[in-house]
Amino acid sequence: MNLAFIPARKGSQGVPGKNTKELLGKPLIQWSIEQAQEARGVDEIWVSSDDPAVLAIARDCGAEPLLRPEEISGATAQIEEAITYHLEIDERRLSIDYILLLQPTSPNRTSIDIERALGHIRETDADSLVSMVATHSPFYWTRDRDLSWIKPYDERPRRQDIPEVFQENGNIYIFKRQGFRGDRVYGKTVSYCMEPDTAHEIDTPLDWLIMEQIMKERHGDPVYRGDRTESQR
After folding, report:
1. What end-to-end distance do the CA atoms of the chain give, in Å?
2. Is the pTM of this model over 0.90?
3. Using the 8-state DSSP alphabet, how is residue 76 labeled?
């Protein structure tokens, strides 16, 4: 069994109530639930929250709502704590092969992305997978008394000459249930590369406005409507 785990605690300092706030006509949490439902290979969807409103939306959408204890729902709580808690009290854990962690703050993934990422970790027999975006290393600066670049300025390369690197985008994490010891990334780890605009996550009101524009641009794409049309990338 492959489990999609969606964490959505009540507290949010940047955007209060963001998981139930509507993004393009539906609660933010609903985007991730529907993407998991449309992805082939996902067998169950658990939504972990201390917010009754989030749990009600999960139930209405057909996902399984799981009440998260207060002691692992605060601002300093780690997602892995919630995963560990729910696995420990649920006997179904023994039938779980892969856990797909889908953070609601990254609603611009697609069901196709989820399917491809799941297929990739299976094919490579990796222990964990992290979704990423390709980028070019920025010009790094250090700040002590004065702002200074880490290399002499006359050695500053052209952007196109900087080697391509990859950064996590927070969209998809997948890991084997067997072997999970409280860290979503462990053992043999592989990456799944996604489109550049998926690097954006919702943490602040400005992030929300930017995500709205990204989603408006992408919402007309057949992939974002849940169709089985392949992406043109």
Report:
1. 30
2. no
3. T
Q: How many CB atoms lie within 10 A of CB 209?
A: 11
Measure the CA–CA gap between 184 and 225, rounded to whole angstroms.
29
Residue with tokens 């998991």: 36
CA dist., res. 183 & res. 175, Å (int): 9
Give the pLDDT score at 11. Answer: 72
pLDDT value of position 155: 67
pLDDT digits (tens, 9 = 90+) for 37-75: 999 999 999 999 999 999 999 999 999 999 999 889 887
Per-residue pLDDT of 194-211, as tens digits, reads 999 899 999 999 999 999
State the CATH number of the domain containing residue 128.
Answer: 3.90.550.10
Domain membership flag for residue 36: yes
Give the residue numbers spanning the domain of 66: 2-133+167-225
Helix (H) or strand (E) holding 91, with range, is none
Residue 117: burial class (beta carbons within 10 Å; 0-12, 13-18, 19+) = buried
Please report, for residues 17, 106, 149, the alpha-carbon distance to residue 4 in angstroms, rounded to integers and kept in the order given.
Answer: 22, 14, 43
Whether pLDDT at 223 is above 60: no
The residue among 38, 4, 8 whose CA lies nearest residue 21 is: 8
- 9 CA to centre of own chain: 15
Three-state secondary structure call for residue 138? coil
Hey, what are 179's tokens?
A: 């072997």
